[in-house]
Amino acid sequence: MAKSTLQRTCCIVGGGPAGIMLGYLLARKGVAVTVLEKHQDFFRDFRGDTVHPSTLELMYELGLLEEFLQLPHQELTKIGGRFGNYAFTVAEFRHLPTHCKFVALMPQWDFLNFLSGQARKFPNFDLRMQHEAVGLVREGGRVVGVEVQTPDGPTEIRSDLVVGCDGRHSVIRKAAQLELIEFGVPIDVLWFHISRRGNDPEQLLGNFNYGRALVLINREKYFQAGLLIRKGSFDETKAAGLEAFCKILLQIAPYLGDRVDELKDWEQVKLLSVQLNRLRQWHRPGLLCIGDAAHAMSPAGGVGINLAIQDAVATANLLSDALRERRVTEDLLAQVQRRREFPTRVTQRVQATAHKVFDRLFRNPGPAKPPWQLRMAVCIPAVRRLLARAVGMGVRPEHIREAEVGTLEKAA
After folding, report:
1. pLDDT digits over 222-248, tens only?
2. Which of 214, 238, 272 is the last residue of a domain?
3. What gap in Å lies between CA 389 and CA 271, rounded to an integer?
């Protein structure tokens, strides 16, 4: 079968938060854009579910907030955790200068289904599921498209710009031979489900005790739970047996009671190998990487999805006019990196500091005692407000620029 070819202004590889948001924003500005997603749907469990006030503010600016919040979700107006027997609150969102003063807990597939559904209202938005990017097309030292494997065979999508949004194991980044700077991480996370009861406490930042940390994310009827373990110790944990694993959970969160018996085998427990890295250079002629493809974030603070969306907004703000006029230059691509690299560096530095805390926690297998610094800091309202702004809005939050140019299809 002969290889087919499609010509688009922009080809986005990866249908995650960065890719779908960028596709929506570019289509809204009148750019002919194709988004490639290798899976047949968005249903990937154990992905980031925390939609922070910065992202909710973007939904407001796009006129989508009211409809978005009709989707099933939970709202956290403050976040905290438990250090040993000491419960604490580190951030209260009620003072944020945003329309939504809470974190929305929503499965990522609901977020992506909603946003892609909105994007499909633009005739120049093209989402192709089960289309896997396998390589880049180059001409004269410039990236001019993507080699794609589809259910109907191989194809090429030619475009003025390729944007890699294909995550921490990015095929696009590897094909472009972009240099990745890795930072050591002392933790991995074991994700699993456990049922939830109405009176269960919620500590988004985790329960810290006995040399471990357990995060419980409210999904109404169950928790998406994450147990932090030492880097590379999953095999050791499995070798100790599932019964020992359940005892660890009960030691940290006794209120889980007999619910730990819901874990019947290791197939229910998924390993997230935590990474913290970023590209030295995010671009090549005709190519840009954003989101996890440009900088893998730790799950600490739940900021990954929100940082990726901020990347997408900055990219659309800086490149949409140039894409419409077919004059994207490498200098413009470099502007995206300059805009977003600073918040990435700051956030990763904070996460690296949090990792050091986790590392010290692992070295104390006994009952955890909260440090005096924590006790003092959380008693200061100004500190809680500052942390709320840092967690809820991040560094250099982006905003939607200008009105839409694309034309919505008329409702039937």
Report:
1. 888 999 999 999 999 999 999 999 999
2. 272
3. 31
